[in-house]
Design goal:
By secondary structure, the chain is of the alpha/beta class. The chain is 27% helix and 17% strand. It starts with a helix and ends in a 16-residue tail after the last helix.
């Protein structure tokens, strides 16, 4: 199985070979979601794959230039635009897409406003080829001034039984280290690869946990990402 880094290297090295494959086709829409780790607000230290992850972002304008899709959508964590240290990269990306004649619009979304049971902010960039209208950004569907209320932690986890085998392996977090999720609000945390999430409170890092004080299980975190329960039907605990 190819790792994320292997895929990054293949794309960075092979975009010139990939693009000609599309020359005989009219491409209506291209979507890009390159690895987000380097750009994330949760990425606070240097990683061994940072160079590959960073380089891949700038393969996007090259592929747009060669393939010439009518519409482009790019998804990325909001750190690319809100973190000062990354803002120059964002401006370079937009400038390069502009330079090949595309009209660009961008916006940061809170996906809790679209039914996700977690406060998850994502940067969405739309780019349209010359003569093509820019798509409209979608209107929020959940929240105080919309048709539907936010989806809460309680609603997201309500059908996961306390007797679930994954739940039985979750550990209790010491009270002085725990930050209990509010069951009646969307999860307020950045979901990361791993089971434990931390929240800064002053100088102290607390572990975000279930309202009952136990750590979130992999099944819980998958539910916050809106993976269906069917994904776990045949998994054993050690697989998770």
């Amino acid at each position: 199985m190819l790792s994320q880094v292997s895929i990054c290297r293949c794309v960075c090295a092979g975009s010139k070979r990939l693009s000609p494959l599309f020359h005989n086709f009219l491409t209506d829409v291209m979507h890009f979601s390159v690895p987000c780790k380097f750009w994330s607000v949760a990425h606070t230290g240097a990683g061994k794959d940072d160079h590959e992850n960073k380089s891949l972002l700038f393969e996007i304008p090259k592929m747009i230039r060669d393939i010439r899709p009518r519409q482009v959508c790019i998804e990325q964590v909001d750190g690319l635009v809100v973190l000062t240290k990354h803002r120059s990269y964002f401006k370079t990306l937009i400038r390069r897409i502009h330079s090949i004649g595309y009209t660009v619009a961008w916006k940061v979304f809170n996906l809790a406003e679209y039914g996700l049971p977690a406060q998850r902010r994502r940067l969405i960039i739309f780019a349209s080829a010359p003569g093509e209208p820019l798509p409209r950004f979608p209107t929020p569907t959940h929240g105080p001034n919309t048709l539907q209320p936010f989806v809460t932690v309680r609603q997201a986890l309500q059908d996961i039984a306390k007797s679930d085998k994954h739940n039985q392996h979750s550990q209790a977090i010491p009270p002085n280290q725990a930050f209990r999720a509010d069951p009646d609000k969307p999860l307020h945390a950045t979901l990361i690869c791993g089971r434990r999430m931390t929240i800064k409170r002053g100088q102290k890092s607390l572990t975000l946990c279930q309202p009952n004080g136990r750590e979130f299980t992999i099944r819980h975190l998958a539910r916050f990402q809106t993976f269906p329960g069917l994904c776990f039907k045949r998994l054993r605990y050690r697989d998770c």
